[in-house]
Design a protein that fits this description.
mainly alpha, Helix Hairpins, 83% helix
Length: 90
C-alpha cells in the first residue's frame, strides 16, 4: 500500500509542476488563476497522501484548512481581477 501511495505522491508532484508551468505560460489571467487553483488542490492531496504515508491523520486537518484558504484566496483574486479592488461593490 505504501508503494501505491508513494506513486500517487510522485504523480501529484508531476501534476503540480505542470500546473506551475501552465500558470507561468497561461495565455489569459483566468488560465493562470485556474492553474494556481489546480496547484492548491494538488497541494491538499499531497498533504493528505503524505499524512497517510507517515501515519499522521492530523495532517488531514491541515489539508482541510489549506483547502479553505485556497478557496478563499481564489475568490479574492477573481474579485480583484474583475473589479480592480476588494472593497468596491459590484
Amino acid at each position: 500500500m505504501t508503494a501505491l501511495m508513494s506513486f500517487a505522491a510522485v504523480a501529484i508532484l508531476i501534476t503540480m509542476c505542470l500546473a506551475l508551468f501552465r500558470a507561468a505560460r497561461g495565455p489569459t489571467t483566468y488560465d493562470r488563476i485556474l492553474a494556481l487553483n489546480l496547484f492548491g488542490t494538488s497541494t491538499v492531496l499531497l498533504i493528505a497522501v503524505t499524512g497517510f504515508l507517515y501515519g499522521r491523520p492530523e495532517w488531514l486537518d491541515l489539508a482541510m484548512v489549506y483547502a479553505l484558504c485556497n478557496f478563499v484566496g481564489v475568490l479574492a483574486v477573481l474579485r480583484f481581477s474583475k473589479y480592480g479592488s476588494f472593497m468596491e461593490d459590484p
